[in-house]
Design a protein that fits this description.
The chain has 574 residues and is α+β, with helices and mostly antiparallel strands. Among the domains are: 228-429, DNA ligase/mRNA capping enzyme (D-amino Acid Aminotransferase, Chain A, domain 1, 2-Layer Sandwich); 435-573, Nucleic acid-binding proteins (OB fold (Dihydrolipoamide Acetyltransferase, E2P)). The strands form 4 sheets. Strands 13, 14, 15, 16, 17, 18, 19 and 23 form an 8-stranded mixed β-sheet that branches. The chain binds adenosine-5'-triphosphate (ATP). Residues 228-229, 250-253, 257, 302, 340, 375, 402, 423, 437 line the site of adenosine-5'-triphosphate.
C-alpha cells in the first residue's frame, strides 16, 4: 500500500472472491476483512466501486455506457474484430468476463484512486464528439489493467458489478470492520439515512469508529432519505398508535415525493431515490426562488400534476416525469408542490424539532402561490373531526390522509417508517388490502394473444436482513395493451443472462427470462398466504406469497431498494 495508495489489483481480487460467494454472512465477512486496517480514503473509494458507483448516489454520475458501445471499446482495446468480440460476449453472457478473456495482461500498477479518477473524467466528458474521446480513454484504462482488473472496470462502467453486494451488506461490513460489533449496524444505517454518501460514511467510521457515525447532520446539497409513514388496518388503530392528545391530519397527495434544497438562487430537487430531478420541474425551481423567504432551506413535499386549480392523477404526473421535451410538457402537464415539512433553515437543522415546531417554521418561511403550496390539514383533539376531515379529503378526490403525531418527540426520522406518521387511505376504508411495491425479476413467455410478449411477470420483495430480493408473486393480470408495450420495452434493457445474484428463486418458479432487479411496479392482491413456490421470508420451505395479484401501475419514482420489505409483508399479513 504505502504512500502511493491502495492497489486496484487487491480490490479486483476481492471482487473475484465475492463473486464466488453466495451466503450473505460470508460476503459481509469477506468485505469486512478487506476494509479492516485500510485507510479512510481507500474505504471511501472501495465502497463506491463495490456497488458499481463512482461517487455518492445523489450526484448524477451515471457512466452512460451501453453494451453496444462497450463491445466496440473492447474490440479497439484488444485489437480484435468487433464480430469476434460480439460472439465471445454471446458465449460468456457478460462483458466483464469477455474483457477478462481478451486481456492477456498479468501485472499492472493501477491504484484504486487513479481508476476512480479516470472513470470520473470519462463520466464528465460529454457533448459533441465526446463519444470518441470517451472510447479512447476507456480503451487506455483497460490496456493499463490486468485481465482481472479489466473485468471489473468494465462492470463498473456498465454499473452492474454482479457481486450480490447491496448497500446493506456494505453497511454491515462497516459495523464489523470498524466497531467489532455487527450489532452497530442499526446505528450505522440511521447515520446513512442522514448522510446518504456511503463512501464518506465509511471513511468517517474507519477514522473515528462509532463516533464517526454520529458526526453527520443534514447539509445543503446532500439529500437525507425521506421519512415514511406506517399503515394500520382499522381506523381505530390510529388512536392506539399515535402519541399526543392533539392529532394532526394532513391531506395525502398522490404524486412524487420531493426533497428541495434551496441555497440562495440555487435550487435542487431530489427524488426519493435521491436522484437530482431539478431539470424536470423548472416551474418548481423558479417557484421556490420566489416563494421561500429563507435564504437557505431544505423542504419536504409532494409534486402533483396541477391544472386550473385542480390536482390531476398520478399517471398524468408520470407522463410529465421526463428528461426530454420538458418545455413542451411543462405547458401540457403543469405541476405544483404541496410542502409539508422543513428539515433545515439558514444553517440550523430542524430534524430534532417536533412536528408542530417544524410546521410553524414552514408556514413562516413560505409565501404560497399557484405552484407552491402548503399541505392542507386539520388539527384537533376530537377524532370524530379527523374522520370528517378524511371524508372531505376523499370527496375532493384525494387519496386519504396522513395522521401526524404532535407529541414533543415527533422528530423527523430520515428513512424511517415509524408510528409518528400513519397513512389512512380510502382503499383501506373500503376494506381493500394495502398495495405492494415489488421489483420485476423475471418473465414467462406469453401464449395466444400475448405471443411474443411476456405472459406474466415474476416479482420480488426486499429482504433487508439478508440484503436480497425474494420472489413473492407472479403477476399476469391488470395490464392494458399499452402497459404491455411500454413495460416490455423497458424490460428489454434489463435482460440478464443468468439469475441475478441478489435474487432467491425456487427452481419451480424459474422464469424464461431474468431481469436485473430495477423496475418497480405496484401490485394489488387479494390475500397473503404461504406457498412452496416463493422465497419471501421463507420458513419450512414455504415463502410468503400474494394471491390473485393485479398490476396497478409502474412506480418510476421508486428504486429497488425502496420496495416493500419482507418485514412489511409480514405485518400486512397479520
Ligand atoms: P411509502 O412512501 O410509504 O413507501 P408509497 O410511496 O407507496 O409508500 P403511500 O403508501 O401511498 O406511498 O403513502 C406515503 C407517501 O405519501 C409519502 O411517501 C409521500 O410521498 C406521500 N404524501 C402525500 N401527502 C403527504 C403528506 N401530507 N405528508 C407526508 N407524506 C405525504
Amino acid at each position: 500500500m504505502g504512500k502511493r495508495g491502495a492497489s486496484f489489483s487487491e480490490f479486483a481480487s476481492l471482487c473475484s472472491e465475492l463473486e464466488k460467494i453466495s451466503s450473505n454472512i460470508s460476503l459481509r465477512k469477506k468485505l469486512a476483512k478487506y476494509f479492516k486496517g485500510k485507510k479512510g480514503r481507500t474505504i471511501k473509494y472501495a465502497s463506491y466501486l463495490i456497488l458499481g458507483q463512482i461517487g455518492p448516489k445523489y450526484e448524477d454520475l451515471a457512466m452512460g455506457f451501453g453494451t453496444k458501445t462497450m463491445v466496440k471499446i473492447l474490440a479497439r482495446t484488444f485489437d480484435k474484430d468487433e464480430e469476434r468480440v460480439r460472439k465471445l460476449f454471446k458465449k460468456k453472457g457478460d462483458l466483464g468476463d469477455t474483457a477478462n478473456t481478451l486481456s492477456k495482461r498479468k501485472r499492472s500498477s493501477l491504484k484504486l484512486k487513479h481508476v476512480l479518477d479516470r472513470l470520473k473524467k470519462i463520466q464528465k466528458t460529454s457533448g459533441e464528439g465526446s463519444q470518441e474521446e470517451r472510447a479512447e480513454e476507456m480503451a487506455e484504462l483497460l490496456q493499463d489493467a490486468t485481465a482481472e482488473e479489466a473485468k471489473f472496470i468494465v462492470r463498473i462502467a456498465l454499473e452492474n458489478m454482479r457481486l450480490g453486494v447491496g448497500e446493506m451488506t456494505v453497511l454491515e461490513a462497516f459495523a464489523e470492520a470498524f466497531t467489532d460489533d455487527a450489532e452497530n449496524k442499526d446505528v450505522i444505517e440511521n447515520s446513512y439515512n442522514v448522510c446518504t454518501d456511503i463512501g464518506e460514511l465509511g471513511e468517517s467510521l474507519a477514522e473515528h469508529g462509532m463516533k464517526g457515525a454520529k458526526r453527520f447532520s443534514i447539509s445543503l446539497g446532500r439529500p437525507v432519505k425521506v421519512m415514511l409513514a406506517q399503515r394500520v388496518d382499522k381506523v381505530s388503530e390510529i388512536l392506539e398508535k399515535i402519541k399526543g392528545n392533539r392529532i394532526a391530519a394532513e391531506e395525502k397527495y398522490d404524486g412524487e415525493r420531493v426533497e428541495i434544497h434551496k441555497d440562495g438562487k440555487d435550487v435542487q430537487l431530489f427524488s426519493r431515490r435521491l436522484e437530482d430531478i431539478s431539470d424536470q420541474y423548472p416551474e418548481i425551481v423558479e417557484g421556490m426562488r420566489k416563494c421561500v423567504k429563507a435564504k437557505k432551506a431544505v423542504l419536504d413535499g409532494e409534486i402533483v400534476a396541477y391544472k386550473n386549480g385542480k390536482i390531476q392523477s398520478f399517471q398524468k404526473l408520470m407522463q410529465r416525469r421526463r428528461k426530454y421535451d420538458v418545455k413542451e410538457y411543462r405547458k401540457k402537464i403543469p405541476v405544483a408542490v404541496f410542502l409539508f415539512d422543513v428539515l433545515y433553515v439558514n444553517g440550523r437543522s430542524f430534524l430534532k424539532k417536533s412536528y408542530p415546531e417544524r410546521r410553524k417554521k414552514l408556514e413562516s418561511i413560505v409565501n404560497q402561490s399557484t405552484r407552491i403550496k402548503l399541505a392542507g390539514r386539520k388539527v384537533s383533539t376530537n377524532f370524530k373531526e379527523i374522520k370528517k376531515f378524511f371524508q372531505k379529503c376523499v370527496d375532493k378526490g384525494l387519496e386519504g390522509i396522513i395522521v401526524k403525531s404532535t407529541a414533543k418527540e415527533s422528530v423527523y426520522q430520515p428513512g424511517n417508517r415509524g408510528w409518528l406518521w400513519i397513512k389512512w387511505k380510502k382503499e383501506y376504508a373500503e376494506g381493500m388490502k394495502e398495495t405492494i411495491d415489488a421489483v420485476i425479476v423475471g418473465s414467462y413467455h406469453g401464449r395466444g394473444r400475448r405471443k411474443g410478449h411476456y405472459g406474466a411477470l415474476l416479482c420480488a420483495v426486499l429482504n433487508k436482513d439478508k440484503d436480497r430480493f425474494e420472489t413473492f408473486t407472479k403477476v399476469g393480470t391488470g395490464f392494458t395493451d399499452k402497459d404491455f408495450e411500454s413495460i416490455g420495452k423497458k424490460l428489454k434493457k434489463l435482460k440478464a443472462r443468468k439469475k441475478p445474484k441478489r435474487l432467491k428463486v425456487k427452481k419451480r418458479m424459474e422464469p424464461d427470462i431474468y431481469y436485473r432487479p430495477e423496475m418497480v411496479i405496484e401490485v394489488l392482491g387479494a390475500e397473503i398466504t404461504r406457498s412452496p413456490s416463493h422465497t419471501a421470508g421463507e420458513k419450512d420451505g414455504k415463502g410468503l406469497a400474494l394471491r390473485f395479484p393485479r398490476f396497478l401501475r409502474v412506480r418510476e419514482d421508486k428504486g429497488p431498494e425502496d420496495i416493500t420489505t419482507v418485514r412489511e409483508v409480514r405485518q400486512i399479513k397479520k
